[in-house]
């Protein structure tokens, strides 16, 4: 009886060894295949970019976990093993509540007095994550008129390429007046991280910090953007924060801001799609669910849509500084344009008329009566993005015919 058990055990062990070896071989093959395809992509993105990036992103997206709500302490820039902290969310909530008390935002005067009378929290939100990729020389030769920082995720290759080929293309502004940078957190695997290093070497427009890239960590991403702009592009007159699914008519954007500059509107500027009395969601099934322990009021005070907002250079620096003594809150647009803005006594300047978040955006931007005014649109799908860009460029070419060379062949 025992010899039979021994034989069965040997078979199980052998099968386990074979399975492990096969898994390692497949993993290694996938990694090398991905690296090869990424290198090939960098050499041929003008002819094959979008189709190959779709394939590349689909193969890597399953590896990423974008729902981790954890704080990663600074580690080596080449470390890819997250260190889970099961108490991180509780710690953030506790610190936030200790600082803001009941967080009744009906009286912002009392809110500001609380900041001024205590220094207990001067280091309550030290943003000391190490850079993995920094690209600190982007603005070293010339300070742009507008620096755009774009929130993206490590595996959003196709979104970044789409922006580089359309409104974020450096050829749009050969004088260097508009520059873009992509802000992201830590990659979920070494393979994905290696691809990001290759992408950064090719384009030089990626900034990456060592925190887990997840929805609940978007506030870290916003602070990372302000930190980088303050440190490495502080000469920019204006800064635009945007997302990688937002279309920007950069020509209208620059015209608007040149008008503000002409009228000396260059300091304490916060232009955005202003939201009034936005309801706090209590539905536990929603990704925007906020518990009463985190925020007691039923409505937020005034703040900006996080899709896109514009700040003057002094505001970016000021917001980064006060963020270091403002406890973490995971709703990033409210944290930045609500809490930090109130700490700086900023007034929200409504720019609502330049946003188009409804259906028919392509027609509105290229044929509608407001086409000379519109700047921002939220688009779904690559074809809409490229069609929008080509339509905008053709309109601009009526002023400057040479701009027709900026159209892309991806339009359908």
TrEMBL record:
- State one molecular function term (GO): hexosyltransferase activity
Any one Pfam family match given in the protein's UniProt record, by short name: Galactosyl_T
What is its subcellular localisation?
Golgi apparatus membrane
Q: Which UniProt keywords apply?
A: Glycosyltransferase, Golgi apparatus, Membrane, Signal-anchor, Transferase, Transmembrane, Transmembrane helix
In short, the EC number is 2.4.1.-
Task: Report the main location listed first in the record.
Answer: Golgi
Q: Name one GO cellular component term.
A: Golgi membrane
Q: Which segments cross the bilayer?
A: 7-26
Provide the topology term for how it sits in the membrane.
Single-pass type II membrane protein
- GO process annotations (BP): protein O-linked glycosylation
Instruction: Give the family this protein belongs to, as stated in its UniProt record.
Output: Belongs to the glycosyltransferase 31 family.
Q: What is this protein's name?
A: Hexosyltransferase
Q: What organism is recorded for this protein? A: Lingula anatina
* Name of the gene encoding the protein in the UniProt record: LOC106151319
């Amino acid at each position: 009886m025992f010899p039979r058990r021994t034989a069965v055990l040997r078979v199980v062990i052998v099968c386990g060894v074979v399975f492990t070896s096969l898994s390692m071989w497949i993993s290694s093959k996938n990694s090398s295949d991905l690296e090869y395809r990424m290198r090939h992509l960098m050499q041929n993105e003008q002819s094959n970019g979008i189709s190959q990036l779709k394939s590349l992103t689909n193969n890597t997206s399953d590896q990423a976990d974008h729902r981790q709500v954890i704080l990663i302490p600074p580690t080596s820039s080449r470390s890819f093993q997250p260190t889970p902290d099961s108490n991180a969310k509780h710690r953030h909530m506790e610190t936030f509540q200790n600082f803001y008390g009941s967080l009744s935002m009906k009286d912002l005067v009392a809110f500001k007095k609380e900041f001024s009378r205590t220094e207990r929290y001067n280091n309550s939100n030290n943003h000391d994550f190490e850079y993995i990729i920094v690209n600190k020389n982007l603005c070293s030769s010339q300070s742009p008129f507008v620096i755009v920082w774009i929130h993206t995720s490590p595996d959003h290759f196709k979104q970044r390429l789409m922006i580089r080929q359309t409104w974020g293309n450096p050829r749009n502004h050969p004088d260097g007046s508009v520059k873009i940078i992509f802000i992201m957190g830590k990659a979920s695997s070494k393979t994905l991280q290696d691809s990001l290093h290759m992408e950064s070497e090719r384009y030089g427009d990626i900034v990456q910090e060592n925190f887990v890239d997840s929805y609940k960590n978007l506030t870290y991403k916003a602070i990372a953007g302000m930190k980088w702009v303050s440190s490495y592009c502080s000469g920019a007159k204006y800064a635009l924060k945007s997302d990688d699914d937002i279309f920007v008519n950069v020509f209208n954007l620059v015209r608007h801001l040149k008008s503000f500059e002409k009228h000396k509107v260059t300091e304490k500027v916060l232009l955005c799609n202003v939201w009034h009395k936005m309801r706090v969601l209590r539905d536990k099934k929603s990704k925007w669910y906020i518990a009463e322990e985190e925020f007691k009021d039923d409505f937020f005070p005034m703040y900006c849509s996080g899709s896109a907002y514009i700040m003057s250079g002094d505001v970016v620096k000021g917001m980064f500084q006060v963020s270091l003594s403002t406890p973490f809150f995971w709703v990033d647009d409210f944290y930045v344009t609500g809490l930090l803005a109130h700490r700086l006594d900023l007034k929200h300047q409504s720019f609502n008329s330049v946003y188009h978040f409804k259906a028919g955006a392509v027609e509105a931007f290229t044929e509608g009566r407001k086409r000379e005014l519109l700047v921002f649109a939220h688009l779904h799908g690559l074809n809409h993005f490229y069609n929008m860009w080509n339509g905008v460029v053709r309109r601009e070419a009526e002023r400057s015919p040479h701009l027709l060379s900026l159209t892309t062949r991806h339009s359908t």
